[in-house]
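STRUCTURE:
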């Protein structure tokens, strides 16, 4: 068994290495020439992300085999063969279009549940912990996170006969869906400032997905879950895509281990905490800018009003203060973030 497995793993690693080189050749120059946020090529945590690239490409295939086989068996016994036969008789192009739409809705809800259910968030938080978003962050995901989200997108395909193992074209449909999502994922994570006008409402772009990763405040988080079709977010009320600005900060407030192994193990050792992207509520009246001669960031008053009305929470960062006082505010920011106070 091991003799047959070793060559397969070596071939897979070699193939992934070649693909990583190609991705680097394509995206690094683009991210240098058209950077949304200028950053070093060997930025913070780049080696950790390389580790996730190989892990995320190798492990899910093994973990998905059994649950998908079980789903296929259940569908075969629970859904009339006349229904699945009718679906597989559709033209291949129609199967692919239907599979993309159905899978997109499944992926949307799997992704959204990763944010809303604390048990799932502790795995998904690894993906959002990236403080610099570029093409390599696409594969920065815990295997449990990847497997759950893919199951959410693939199970509806099997249930509707779009991925039923009844014919060659039907079998290829989920492969094409996953391949399209994987390739497009590198693009929407890319650190580029491109905008695409009306096309942004039809297909996901870097501007669309970068807002999903933002840590600019509670008014902007929990948006843009769809991996490919933004109109799915519009249907379910989570679309946010302004024309005149881009996100400034990324990451999460929760502390995570910096090591690759530590991040993989941590979700199994901690108790579920707050749901995703919900900073601890803080009384804005308890924190004032130290420079009376410098105006407060306009966003401060808006956030404060929202908090006092009970509609939101607020996270204090150094951008609310004069740059000359940033050093003094960094410690204050840390203290405020640790403060839990119900308003």
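SEQUENCE:
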């Amino acid at each position: 068994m091991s003799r047959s497995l070793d060559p397969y793993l070596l071939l897979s690693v070699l193939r992934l290495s070649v693909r990583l080189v190609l991705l680097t050749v394509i995206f690094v120059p683009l991210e240098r020439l058209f950077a949304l946020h200028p950053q070093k090529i060997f930025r913070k945590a780049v080696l950790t992300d390389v580790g996730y690239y190989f892990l995320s490409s190798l492990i899910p295939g093994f973990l998905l085999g059994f649950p998908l086989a079980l789903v296929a068996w259940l569908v075969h016994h629970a859904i009339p063969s006349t229904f699945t036969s009718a679906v597989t008789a559709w033209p291949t192009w129609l199967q692919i279009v239907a599979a993309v739409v159905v899978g997109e809705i499944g992926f949307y809800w799997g992704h959204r549940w990763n944010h809303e259910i604390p048990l799932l968030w502790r795995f998904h938080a690894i993906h959002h912990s990236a403080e610099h978003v570029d093409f390599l962050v696409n594969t920065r995901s815990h295997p449990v996170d990847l497997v759950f989200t893919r199951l959410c997108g693939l199970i509806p395909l099997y249930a509707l006969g779009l991925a039923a193992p009844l014919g060659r074209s039907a079998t290829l449909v989920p492969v094409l869906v996953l391949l399209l999502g994987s390739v497009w994922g590198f693009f929407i994570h890319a650190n580029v400032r491109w905008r695409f006008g009306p096309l942004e409402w039809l297909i996901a772009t870097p501007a669309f997905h970068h807002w999903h990763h933002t840590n600019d405040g509670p008014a902007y988080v929990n948006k843009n879950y769809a991996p490919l079709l933004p109109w799915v977010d519009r249907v379910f009320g989570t679309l946010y895509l302004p024309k005149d600005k881009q996100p400034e900060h990324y990451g999460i407030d929760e502390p995570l281990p910096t090591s690759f192994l530590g991040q993989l193990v941590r979700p199994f050792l901690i108790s579920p905490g707050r749901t995703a992207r919900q900073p601890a509520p803080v009384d804005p009246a308890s924190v004032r800018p130290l420079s009376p001669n410098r105006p407060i960031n306009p966003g401060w008053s808006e956030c404060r009003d929202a908090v006092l009305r009970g509609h939101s929470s607020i996270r204090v960062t150094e951008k609310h203060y004069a740059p000359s006082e940033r050093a003094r505010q960094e410690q204050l920011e840390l203290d405020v973030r640790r403060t839990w106070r119900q308003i």
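REMARK: Residues 279-337 form one domain.
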